[in-house]
Amino acid sequence: MYEVVLLLSRADEAAHEAGERMPLPTKKQLAAAIDHTRDWPGAAKAAAQARAAVKIVESLPSEERLPSLVARVADAVAKLPCVAVWWTPAERLVDPKALAAAARAKDPLLVAVQVRLFHVEQGRPGELVMDTIGLAPLGLPDVQCHFVNLDPAAMAALLEETAQYLYAEGDVISDEDTVNGLDGKPWPCRRETALVAPSRDVIDLTPPAAHLSRPR
Question: Is residue 7 part of a domain?
Answer without folding.
Answer: yes
